[in-house]
């Protein structure tokens, strides 16, 4: 499922740096610009409501990291792993990116904070 650029990617342990370098390596510069903008807005919202700015910022950076996977590959992965796939996800497999993003955040970015993982996994549909 992982694109060649992702397989060869070296992670530094700095999530913000790694998100940028991975998305750029996979030809997703616009996705990076969007993720950075979401992270910046997330910090502002976190401050306004007394939330953890680091959690919100990282959630913003990671929420679309699954975009490095082609939608057809997302669907194949989901089917092979026995996921429940609803009609909308079957018609528009990019909707699976939120669940794929959680997996990448856990496995490649070593994120364990459930607040971040949940925000990433559910940012489109909940």
Radius of gyration in whole Å, from Cα?
14 Å
* Strand content bin: under 5%
Q: What is the arithmetic mean of pLDDT? A: 94
Helix amount, in percent?
55-70%
Low-confidence stretches: none
Structure description:
This protein is mostly helical. The protein contains eight helices and no strands. Helix 3 (29-49) runs antiparallel to helix 4 and helix 4 (53-62) packs parallel to helix 8 (114-121). It starts with a helix and ends in a 5-residue tail after the last helix. The model has no long low-confidence stretch (mean pLDDT 94).
Keywords:
126 residues, mainly alpha, globular
Topology readout:
Blueprint: H1 4-7, H2 15-25, H3 29-49, H4 53-62, H5 71-80, H6 87-91, H7 97-107, H8 114-121
Helix pairs in contact: 3-4, 4-8, 7-8
State the gist of this model:
By secondary structure, this protein is an all-alpha fold. Helices cover 63% and strands 0% of the residues.
């Amino acid at each position: 499922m992982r694109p060649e650029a992702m397989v060869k990617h070296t992670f530094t342990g700095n999530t913000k740096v790694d998100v940028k370098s991975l998305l750029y390596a996979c030809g997703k510069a616009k996705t990076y610009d969007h993720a950075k903008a979401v992270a910046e807005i997330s910090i502002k919202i976190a401050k306004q409501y007394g939330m953890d700015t680091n959690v919100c910022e990282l959630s913003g950076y990671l929420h679309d990291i699954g975009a490095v996977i082609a939608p057809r590959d997302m669907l194949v992965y989901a089917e092979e792993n026995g996921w429940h796939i609803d009609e909308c996800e079957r018609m528009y497999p990019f909707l699976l990116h939120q669940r794929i993003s959680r997996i990448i955040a856990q496995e490649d970015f070593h994120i364990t904070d459930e607040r971040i993982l949940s925000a990433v996994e559910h940012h489109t549909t909940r």
